[in-house]
Every structure is written in C-alpha cells, then in structure tokens.
Specification:
Blueprint (H helix, E strand, L loop, with lengths): L2 H10 L6 H11 L13 H10 L9 E4 L5 E6 L5 E9 L2 E5 L3 E3 L8 H5 L1 E4 L2 H9 L9 E4 L9 H12 L11 E5 L3 H10 L3 E5 L5 H7 L8 H8 L10 E7 L7 H11 L5 E6 L13 H13 L4 E3 L17 H8 L1
Helix pairs in contact: 1-2, 5-6
Length: 336
C-alpha cells in the first residue's frame, strides 16, 4: 500500500494519524514479514490490523542459476499462476528485472511471454514483492520493469509500485535507478511520463511501421511514429534517460537501410539505442546475427550521431535473457 492508503486503513481503524508512517517504515525500511514484528504499535492495534491484513511478503518458490551469475526466481502470484524475476549481478551493480503481468497481451513474435498468452495483472503487492523478497535485495542498485508483461497495460498498479520504490516513506530510491520498458501504449505512456521521473525504454525493433506490425501486433493500434511524436513533447536532455530497444534479426532489420530509417525516425530526440542479440525461442522463424554485424550497426549509428550500445546478453542458458521469460510450463504442471 501507498502511504495515503495506509492512512485510510489507520483512520478506518481509529488509530492515531502518525501510525501510517510507522507502518510504512516497518514495511519498506525494515522489511518485516508479519504485523506482529511492528513492535512500536500497541498489541491492540497489531491485533486489529492482523484481523484484516497481512504483510504479503512471499519468498520465491524456485530458482535457477546461470553460468554467468544471473539468477531467475519463480514467484507464486494467484490461483495456479506464477511470474519470473531475474537478478543480474555485474561487478558493483545489481539489477532486478521485474514482471508486471502473468503472460502478456502484446504477442510480439520474438517473445516467449507473449506466446504464453495473458492470465492477469499483478497487484502492486505482487510487483513490489519481487523486489522486497529478493534474496539479493541488499545488493540492488537498479530496477528494470522489463520482465513478463506490458507495464503500461497495468499502469495503476505499476504506478503504485513505482511510488513505493521512490517515495521518502518507501524505499526512497532515486527514480534514476528505475527503467520502465514498454511497446508504447499511447495513453499510458503520457501518464507515465507526467507522473513519474523514471527512465523510459521503448521496444522499437523496426523503424518502419509495416515491418514493426509483422513483429509487434501492438503497432496496429499504437504506431511507432505516434509514439515518437508523443516523446518529442518531453525533455530528456537532463537526468531522465530515453532509450530504444532494438533486437537485431538476421535478414529482417539488420541492414544499413534500416539503420538509416532509425536515424530518420529518431532525429532530434535526445536518446540512445540499445542493440540486443536475439535469443532463439521455439517455433519462431527468426535468427540472430553475429557480433560483427552488431558492431557494424552500432558503429554506423554512432558515427551518424545516434548514441548506440550493444547490450550484454545474460542468463540465456536458464531462459532468463530478453524475451525468454515464460511460466506456461510451470502453470501447466500445476493444473495437472
């Protein structure tokens, strides 16, 4: 819950006004797992809270460890549904990749989560729990909303989770530690940009609408040209970062022709492009490219004024890399 929601709870139970801040500190600073641990609340108040509420912190039920140190965790959410969360260590950085939905409605051709279909939205509790109950919580430096699901398709709950992460009564993290990744749902995009200061990463993958439609059905409703037009109304020249994610597919979007279209599309925007290696998934007729091709694209774009990086691939051996998260098999096992 946010502080305002905690205030509603304590007011409804007849508790003093300051109690809500005490509860927030127990939840988000001391990260207690039960109401009984909130020892500066009276026994009476703890009993009243316990009748109607729980802390809701649930540890992962399974984990897989990659050869490169990446760890993928499985969290139970509701009914027989689950989400995957990925912790990525890198020298003095620790990044957690957080999910916002069980499955996804966007059905991007290259993504296993989309192939799973959509089962439901996560609550703010289930989003925050992936961070709060992460065994490596104390090592975290960054959060990326890039796991299962489309964050802007579950915006109310995502915004509550972001508030908890960044508010002084919550984790008190700088919004510059958090990046939200989206295909670009126009209405939700504008609200996110106006109500949050977190970084934004747009899943681009093709600079031409016709090609992007083949890869990403969401292009039919929310064109990349419309998305870029919206972004031009905001200032990304200071601390807030705008980036575009571009998975490189062999013979599809890997030629200089598309690099030139990228330059044309993004001209004048203060942004960067992250080139991502494609990780093969079952029953999808797409292939990745070699390092030489990735380097060629990066150098061409950078030389023409568009800052471009090649994102390091992590956790592929445990299906934890970009586009590989799916709990369809786990949910099928549990139904049977």
């Amino acid at each position: 819950m946010t502080l305002s929601e905690l205030q509603e709870v304590t007011k409804g139970l007849g508790m003093p006004g300051f109690t809500a801040k005490q509860i927030a500190q127990w939840l988000y600073v001391k990260r207690v797992k039960s109401i009984d641990e909130m020892t500066n609340l009276s026994l009476k108040h703890r009993a009243m809270l316990s009748e109607a509420y729980v802390v809701g912190a649930e540890t992962p039920i399974n984990e897989m460890r990659s050869q490169d140190g990446t760890v993928k965790y499985l969290y139970h959410t509701f009914d027989n549904h689950f989400v995957e969360t990925v912790f990525i260590p890198d020298e003095d950085r620790g990044t957690v990749c957080v999910s916002s939905q069980v499955g996804c409605k966007m059905n991007c051709k290259f993504c296993m989560t989309g192939k799973q279909g959509f089962s439901g939205n996560l609550s703010a509790n289930q989003i925050v729990n992936q961070i709060q109950s992460l065994p490596e919580f104390e090592r975290l430096t960054n959060v990326v909303m890039m796991g299962m699901g489309e964050p802007l398709d579950n915006l109310d709950e995502v915004m509550k989770a972001l508030e908890i992460m960044t508010a002084q009564w919550g984790y008190a993290w700088s919004p510059k530690r958090i990046t939200l990744s989206t295909v670009g749902l126009k209405k939700g995009l504008q609200r996110f940009l106006e109500e949050s200061e977190c970084h934004l990463a747009v899943s681009l993958h093709a600079p031409l609408p016709a090609l992007r439609r083949e890869l990403m059905p969401a292009e039919r409703a929310y064109s990349i040209t419309e998305i870029v037009d919206v972004l031009r109304n905001y200032d990304f020249s200071h601390q807030r970062r705008l980036s575009f994610e571009y998975i490189v597919f062999k013979g599809v979007n890997d030629s200089v022709v598309y690099a030139k279209e990228l330059l044309k599309l993004l001209r004048g925007l203060d942004c960067r492009v992250n080139l991502i290696r494609f990780h093969a998934i079952p029953n999808v007729d797409l292939e990745g490219v070699d390092v030489a091709k990735m380097t060629e694209l990066r150098d061409y774009l950078t030389q023409h004024g568009l800052f471009t990086t090649i994102r390091a691939s992590r956790g592929e051996d445990i299906f934890a890399a970009c586009g590989m998260l799916s709990t369809a098999k786990q949910e099928e096992i549990n139904k049977n």
